[in-house]
Amino acid sequence: MALRNLRERGMKGYIIYDVARKGTPPDTGFAPPTGWGMIVVSSPKVSNYDEWAKQLKAERIIVNCPDETDVKAMCAWMKRDETPEKKAGYWRMVKRHMSLLVPIPRHIFDADECGKRTQDVERALEWINIGDRGKYFTQGERKNGNPRIRPTNF
Q1: Residues 26 and 97 in one domain
Q2: Helix (H, G, I), strand (E, B), or coil: what is residue 148?
Q3: Between residues 124 and 99, the one the model is more confident about
Q4: 14 vs 26, 56, 58, CA distance in Å?
Q5: Quick check: 31 and 4 in contact, CB under 8 A?
Q6: In terms of domains, do 73 and 145 share one?
Q7: Which one of 6, 30, 40, 68 is most buried, by most CB atoms within 10 A?
Q8: What was the pLDDT predicted at 86?
């Protein structure tokens, strides 16, 4: 209803549908108004989007995580009305979260989300048999010499 009203007033835009946040893919009968685009953000789990994508002949685009410069620009935009001190503090927090989790926007901009995701990763690491870790993770080294373990096959 709201989209129809916007379309009737000549407005155009994009719909961003986050499957992870909603828990289900968009309804297969749903399509954006003519002239509008739609982005469905999903994990690689095919059941999150496959039927919807087939029916609407959607294109699958895989996007890498943003790099540090992109994330810094996102922080600047999100905190554009804050003082320079608050902006700097927020950037330090986000940068710390990125060092733990890699730059996954869903988890790095919010301290609670970062904490939950960090616990999830630590729990998953505990459950993986030590001999099987090479199948799922690559290990690098941080500047401070501590190991960095990144998921590679989830």
Answers
A1: no
A2: strand
A3: 99
A4: 14, 16, 14
A5: no
A6: yes
A7: 40
A8: 95
